[in-house]
Amino acid sequence: MPFLYGPRFVWVIRSPLLWFPLAQMLALGYSCAKGIHLFTVWRSVEGETDAGPRVSREQTRRRSIHRSRRSTCTKRPGRRGPGLPRGEEMTTRALRSTAIVVAGIMAALTLSACSGAGTDASGKTTINFMAADPQDKFQPLIDGFEEANPDITVAFTYVPFDQYNNVVSQRIGGKDAGVDVYVADTGTIGELATKGYLQDLSSLQAEADAASLPAAVASNVYDGKLWALPMWTSQQYLFYNKDLLDQAGLPYPSSDPNERVTYEELLADAKKAKSAGADWGLILDQIDRYYQIQPIAESAGGGSGATGDDLLTADVTNAGWKKAMNWYSELFSSEVAPRGNGAGQMVEVFAGGKAAYMISGPWQITTNANATPPVNFGVAPNPLFEGGKPTMATGSWNIGINPASQHQDAATAFIKYVSLSEEGNTKSTEITGITPTNLKSFDAWIAKEDAILPPSTTGVGALTLEELKTAAVNRPNSPGFRQLQDVLNRAFSDIRNGQDVDTTLENAQDELQSYWDQLK
């Protein structure tokens, strides 16, 4: 490459014909580079997601130490090799400089191509949608939206549930424009809004009120503003295996909400069913997660665990929480429920005919119906404690807009289709079987539930309406909800594994309050 040596090389380097377009390309590529950098950092911290197994904390720690050592190694000073002629040394430097220029051009071209991915040459816009369920669950929704909006394409990013909150913090908190819309769980809205992670959607409040279940809209309001649109909601039922109860000589629970079985009765019957041959007496769907456990404490009079005007005062050591957690502890100490199975495994345990009772959501109905052979089951209202109130877990994923999105209009069109459109909201639940929040979609869903697998599902629609009306308990919309959920989930796991209830709750309250004091 002799033409790049000497004066000619200097001319190339100084020429505005090179640097002006290069500067433009670098500027265009900046936002994409930032997104790529954040994604790379996330992958290095979180390990694999849908592409493979998650990296363990220990592996991550070792890799981090290795990278740290590698990056801080002292480099030996550069020097000319023995006998290297000075002219050749200059040529080498020139070639190195040329390589840097070429690499810079290639990087700029790549980045500017990436930053322009939002709108193609034909003017078609691409928005990026991030969620904690695999793409197949959303494909009918995506296909329907793209058919109704041919000028917009939806790209999808799947992040597993146990990594989702961290990824939201890293990407949305890092102002990564590579995410336009994303799902937000009920209970997290206050925290996300406080941190500036959600676009204010108050202009859509009237439309949301007219189109959606009132409680679902209310869960997305924080500090007087609407921050996300409802997408799904949920409810729980007490499922029971008729064959296993018959085997144990136990009566079926009443389907009348006014004659609910108590938690005390349920535990006693679960022990009898296990003694009669059931693998497990009673299991819970999300067996050690706040979503599932909160209603148990609420029924015992313990509350949500968050009190005060700002919902930043921890309260998990009261008599209600202790009563609920002692009942929960006995599930495992008496071996009525398994200690080793995770939340993702419980659905199949019941559908496989291995548990006498289960508290789970509407997705359990579909799983039961698809089991081979189908499990012979019944559905009853949620239990309550003696002298307590009926309570039921509710709420699910909502959908919001990243304030850093460069495609606000397209993003708004998408979330309105997901939530406010009967067609879109119905398609969003087509695969999962979860409950939609659009009023028209909800009415159609209710009518369909009874017909899934009669007589097992006969009356489920009416029961759902009654439970949502009289027993539903939303998670607290606290700015510190994630800390509440994380701390208590660890406490539930400790209790499940045999730790003392009082000590565990006291430690959890102290830890939670120490986090929340920093938010005040």
UniProtKB/TrEMBL annotation:
Coiled coil: none
Lineage: Bacteria, Bacillati, Actinomycetota, Actinomycetes, Micrococcales
Name of the protein this chain belongs to: Sugar ABC transporter substrate-binding protein
Xref: InterPro entries: SBP
UniProt GO cellular component terms: ATP-binding cassette (ABC) transporter complex, substrate-binding subunit-containing
Record key words, sorted: Signal, Transport
PANTHER family from the UniProt entry: MALTOSE-BINDING PERIPLASMIC PROTEIN (PTHR30061), MALTOSE_MALTODEXTRIN-BINDING PERIPLASMIC PROTEIN (PTHR30061:SF50)
GO molecular function terms attached to this record: maltose binding
The family this protein is said to belong to: Belongs to the bacterial solute-binding protein 1 family.
Domain of life: Bacteria
BP-aspect Gene Ontology terms: maltodextrin transmembrane transport; maltose transport
Annotated region (Disordered), positions in chain: 50-89
Bias kind Basic residues: ranges: 62-79
